[in-house]
Amino acid sequence: MISSPTIDPDRRYLSIVAGVPAVVAERLVAWRAGQGLVGPAAESCHITVLISEDAGGNPLNALRRAVAGLGPVQVGLGPVASFEPVTPVTYLPVVVGSDRLNLIHTACQKAVGESVSPFPYEPHLTLANHAPVPALEASLRDFAALPAELARFTLTDLTVYRFREGSWQELGKVRL
Known about the structure:
Blueprint: E1 13-19, H1 22-34, H2 40-43, E2 46-53, H3 60-67, E3 73-77, E4 81-82, E5 89-96, H4 98-112, E6 124-129, H5 133-142, H6 148-151, E7 152-155, E8 157-164, E9 167-175
Antiparallel strand pairs: 1-2, 1-8, 3-5, 3-7, 4-5, 5-6, 8-9
Helix pairs in contact: 3-4
C-alpha cells in the first residue's frame, strides 16, 4: 500500500478528479502493470483537482454551482518530470490548460473546503507514485516522448469521490 502524505486512512475526504481519455489510461495502466505496479492506485489515471476534508452531506450541488460556466478544458501534457527529492513521484505536467485547472481548483475549494495536500496545487498526470526506483527511472525514460495524440485532450467533467473507512466511493459527476 502506498503511504500518502495527504491521506490519513482514519479521516474522511472528498476527492475531485478529471479523468483522462481511455486510450491514455489504457497505455498508463498497461505500462504500470509491466513494471509490476498493480492495485487500485496503479489502475487510477486522472488529474487531481482537489482533495479536501469531507464535511458530509452531498457536495455535488455546491460543486456544480462553483464550476458552472467554466466550460471544458483543453489539456496539453508536457515533458515527463519528477517531484523528487521531495516525494518519489513521476508525472506529466499539464502545460496547456493549467491556468484553467487552477481556476477550477480554487472554485472547488470555495465550494467544499481548502486542500489538505501539503503541496501547492500543480495540475499533472501521475505516472509512478512511491514506486520502486527502477519503475521511477523507467517512467522518465518510457514517457519522454508521449505521442501528440495522447498528450492533447479535452476535459468535460469532474468525478467526485468520498473517502471513508479506508475506501473511495464515487458520488457522481460534475459537468464543466
